[in-house]
Design a protein that fits this description.
The protein has 122 residues and is an alpha+beta fold. The chain is built from 3 helices and 6 strands, in the order ααββαββββ. It is globular.
């Protein structure tokens, strides 16, 4: 696995459960661009990312990562509990711009899908 793909793998390992990893010095999320949060409002910086994402736990599963010239594209699914009960599930395509081993920009595209209640693999 390339160093840039490892950065993305570590990013997904931290989101939803352990934000200490996301806030570590070697992760520098500068801009969370179009697509997420659902409002479509551009988000700048790690603190704003966490504020918009929330501290609720959720699962992610990356099915494929593709890399070229410092850009890693990750495709997968995410699932979590809704505040009002039940679950949300989304298929995503995230574009990570990596510079000097840090996430400089994340553009996320998501498509909500009906949740079967059986986890990510269902």
């Amino acid at each position: 696995m390339s160093a840039n793909k490892k950065v993305v793998e570590d990013f997904f390992a931290s989101t939803g459960t352990d934000y200490r990893r996301l806030l570590a010095d070697d992760v520098e999320l500068i801009e969370w661009a179009e697509g997420v949060p659902a409002t479509g409002v551009r988000t700048l910086g790690k603190a704003a990312f966490i504020e918009n994402r929330g501290m609720r736990e959720y699962e992610t599963r990356v099915g494929r990562m593709t890399e070229e010239h410092g850009v890693v594209v990750a495709e997968g699914t995410a699932r979590g509990a809704k505040k009002e009960g039940g679950f949300w599930r989304v298929q995503f395509c995230d574009v990570f711009e990596i510079e000097n081993g840090k996430v400089k920009r994340l553009t996320s595209f998501g498509n909500s899908v009906q949740d079967s209640g059986k986890g990510l693999s269902a």
